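Supplementary Text 2. Reproducibility record for the structural model of the 111-residue chain.

All settings were left at their defaults, and a single model was retained for analysis rather than an ensemble. We include the record here because the model underlies the residue-level annotations in Supplementary Table 4.
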Amino acid sequence: MGSCDAILTCDLHMKRACAKFMPSLLTDDQREQRQTIACDLFERSCEDVQVLKSTVAGEGSWIYGYESETKQQSSQWMGPTSPRPKKGHQVRSKTKVMSLAFFDSEGIVHH
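Retained model, structure tokens:
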């Protein structure tokens, strides 16, 4: 184990890095759609300041129980120029709950 570690760290200049957890990895189409909607809302709000006061937005998400993974378990070897690894999701358990929240410019309307 010590020889492998020495070769990886000293000879190959590699190090262990933990994956950065991303809530969701979006496709290019999803990113483009979100950008289009945001630009449209921005243009409307520039024309009429009251638009945002009459807008109600909602956010819904399934909340799962996860099998926890330690930072050590999620770390992996990477080279000096390698980008930090990303992790899209963890292994889900059978427990899940839908969480919904609706809000306007004043705060939460309903949850």
